[in-house]
Design brief:
A hairpin with a 5-residue loop joins strand 6 and strand 7. With 313 residues, this protein is of the alpha+beta class.
Amino acid sequence: MAFDRVHDARIRAAAFEWLTDQVLRHGDVLPRSLLVQGFYFGDSRVPLVGPQGIFKPRILELPLSITTAPEGPYNDAFGPDKLLRYRYRGTDPDHRDNRGLREAMANRLPLAYFHGIAPGRYMAAWPVFIVGDHPDPFSPSFSVAVDDKGHLGVVAEDRNERGAVGEEGDTARRQYITSTVRVRLHQRAFRERVLEAYRRQCAFCRLRHEELLDAAHIIPDASPEGEPVVQNGLALCNLHHAAFDKFFIGVRPDYVIEIRPDILREGDGPTLRHAIQGLNGTSILVPERLSLRPDQALLSKRYERYREAAREY
């Protein structure tokens, strides 16, 4: 039976529309339970992920998504071509899952990619395209490129011998977009690790609404010491993250909060009084595990910057 491109395109479009809606509701890190449940296309339920990394729902002939689990088993990484390298299922190039991705590449079909950020939580990116096949006997993999959603309906005419898009403009665009996704992966991974360590609440005010929480760097990530590790992070609500970044608030190495003196003297209503001034002299919430608590040397450096800012007012 011939491949039904129209049927396939309708289901993929419905899947991507559903993902767009879920990301608007939940952000681009989604719970696995939601992806397993999926959506309905007519009378058929269409999950987005399954037990294996390469997933094809029953309603489709070819894979709809690829997934990297946070705990492995495969070492999916980005190659020197700035594209994602996605490992084969096993080592048999003719395994049906590997054949499925190869056929998706030949038909230039868009897929969804779910990267495990933390157990049960995945960052979603789409559309992604299989653009290369590397049947290396020691590390067989596919090259995966992320594209922008405006090119979902665009089919390139020229391809190289591996099936990758041949036009330089398409290749450069996909490399750039894939690189930006790589940066987002690191950012989301940092956020998830920090929020988990702080039990998903603000270290200053204990707010528990995750939608309003950020992972703040103690030393900014642009600095050589600003590594994306939990010990250089604080879980903060949006308000306190902004106040911390602007040096309204300082944290001493002994985890005690200080409010800049000129801010303490202001009389600007209940939000300032209760949400910021009231924190002065209180202790921050710290992770239960000692190894995940803020690095006191980093806090000391940050506190000195806060004091320098305070002297300017």
